[in-house]
# Entry
Amino acid sequence: MAYTQVLIAGFGGQGILFAGKFLAYKGLLEGKEISWLPSYGPEMRGGTANCSVIISDTPVGSPIVSNPDILMVMNLPSLDKYENAAVAGSKVFVDSTLIERKLTRQDVSAYYIPATKLAQEAGIPTLANMIMIGKMIKETSIVSFDDITDGLKKVVSAKRAELLDLNLKALQMGYNYEG
Amino acid sequence: MSEKVLMKGNEAIAEAAIRAGCRHYFGYPITPQTELAAYMAKRMPKIGGTFLQAESEISAINMVYGVAGAGYRVMTSSSSPGVSLKQEGISYIAGADLPALIINVQRGGPGLGGIQPSQSDYFQATKGGGHGDYHLIVLAPASVQEMADLTAHAFDLADKYRMPTMILADGTMGQMMEPVSLPEETTSKVEKPWAVTGTNCEREHNIINSLYLVPEQLEKKNFERFEKYAKVEENEVMYEEYMMDDAEYCIVAFGIAARVSKNAITAARAKGIKVGMIRPITLWPFPKEAIAKAADKVKAFISVELSMGQMIEDIKLAEECRKPVVLCNRTGGMIPDPEQILKTIDTLIGGNN
# Structure
């Protein structure tokens, strides 16, 4: 029975909470038990932001993720803070445009994705978060990539339908990224 | 029950309240409950309801007092410092025997405290809070689904017993999203012949009041109210027993503390330690009998709280100090983790051998 704990961290404005919400909704559509818990308060106003997402076949206990199975970090302070919190054998996704150092641990699998650079080059500078999520889905199968648009429709407001295709593009870029 | 949607706990309370027939909301913004007020601000004007951001929490609760007296389902929401400000009004509402719902999405205190989750308003919520002899029915949700379900239940209880009810949540419960099936729209209408709705010169005046200058009359009123409270204690206790069948150690925890405790129980049982939990859903009335019954078979109780230890007093009263009760706590916006709970249990076992 899978019980997967995800921690997504970066700074305010990178779409950290949005990325977590997308994962949660996709999990819900697949009939999983899920929880999503954001950091709130001063973090939202420009400091660090993080969210805990749990996707599970069994009911979720504590919604707080202290020791993630999957860690996604989009700035250096987040890697510094959470690198040692990840469980042994976990998968760690690093935005290597914004984080120049490598992981110091050897007992986790690290994936370095220049997501911010890729997003800028593709003309979707605000969607580095979704490139990271695409790669995460590819490497962890935490949710299925099938019917991925259904998950997006739950988090992209119908009034901003033009963003749907851009988010999809970002997810596909991440999913297909080899590096 | 409808299709499951993802909602924040704060939003689930708001939508459930609307579906329970609440059309009047009065509040004042404060973290971490603001999404609730924001949801009401968006929805109420579209359904012919009232959303009013008052000039202060004190005004908001007095507006609740007024609308409750007119016989409508009404609510307010706030977080700890704001709920302290509302206490005078809550006491008046209790003294006038009016149904109303108060939401407290707790944050750390005392004083302005912080904005992170806490359970340190337990005393305030369960022992009265304002002045005078009174109680609120206090419900403690431990999931977004319960945030919705207990909101509907709280309105029903308030009307059934003509008394204010409170949802005692915390920052985590308010902020987290989980799948929720929203309750169906209430269609039944509760008759409130006592409400001040205008007499049309066809009946005697109804009077909503909490002032009784003749002590004999006030005492009589208080005795009557406590007869009502006795019925609440007899009929409305709610709790969940989790893995208690063979438990040797009993965690007592509510809200987010109960969620964390479930992880600790899973981990403890993996190590062969038989731990279970009694999770009070009503904090007042407190599940005294369940605790007393558990005291016959467990070796000790662990009170897991986000406070310096408040509910632990009610546990000790309920089990009459027959078994040790230890505290496992964090406070000020911090949350105990499963390891801390496990460590507390290990210490207990060490002490028993």
